[in-house]
Model the fold of this input.
Amino acid sequence: MALDLFCPVKLGSISLKNRMVMAPLTRNRAGEGGVPLAMNVKYYEQRASAGLIITEATPISPMAHGYPALPGIYTPEQVAGWKKVTDAVHAKGGKIFIQLWHVGRISHPSLLNGETPVAPSAIKPVGQAFTYTGMQDFVTPRTLEKKELPGIVNDYVHAAKCAMEAGFDGVEVHSANGYLLDQFLRDGSNVRADEYGGSFENRARLLMQVLEAVVNTIGADKTGVRLSPVNPFNDMHDSNPQALFNYVVGELNKFNLAYLHVIEGDVGGNAVNFDFVTLRKLFNGAYITNLGYDKARGNAAIASGHADCVAYGVPFIANPDLVERYRIDAPLNQADQNTFYGGNEKGYTDYPFLSR
Ligand code: PHB
Done:
């Protein structure tokens, strides 16, 4: 019989009971000081039947924040809050990675104690930041000096250590969707003239330094990475994404990572010109695909060998028991977009399970 979503799999040293991954989802419901709250514990615990949960993107330092009410993973209080999440997920037999995030230029001084957001180059993204007082125009970011970059690498290392203390099974380095590491990769946001800009090797340097440092700290088998080669979200573009990301994946092969997680397209739903089959074949480890999958397409991606796992976002918001619903072809709850970002338990922990 062909492999499907419900077959177990190993990612690095982590055994998953099925191949359905809960994608990282920003929900803007953390407490004061970026500390996870009881409702955050309940939300993740409810979804522990996923083969793997990848948490919402989580800032690694105060300068890494770009939206209101995000959790963090750099203070002892945050670690203690996340420990309750990982304990609850593990008690239900689940596995959970935390997504490590620096937003770079996708922020606003009002979210950074008045500081200017930082980026590879001083290029203002088109659009607006989501702040505590509503939407506000993005500002021109400050160019990170070369001598500041080891400090950013150290922030990832510190966050990875905090993640281990908090009981996570691993970390996913967020290098997608127009945030800091992706801003370095793509030439629409990186025009540096030093060894962090220009060639593919230079633009990928910070990502590789972060991965090397994180891998050396917690182990390659606990480290994954997420890429979004052609997602234009956050005003991103590149002059030659296929060649750039083929190069990046070749470099990732040196680490023996737990997995590569790829957003295969444009989150806005526009057609893209990119060969993800070739990209996947270039990678020598486990591959998680994401973007708009349903059960049939997920099973097909696994049966064909294209992917080892499939990440589902919106379906997991609305269906804490998505795995069981797919297993028995039960109808799905529909997600309410109005409660995606911020608020309380409504639209967060109150989506019904199938009645037993
Ligand atoms: C968001 O908060 O809108 C967001 C966060 C992280 C992503 C994508 C979107 O990777």
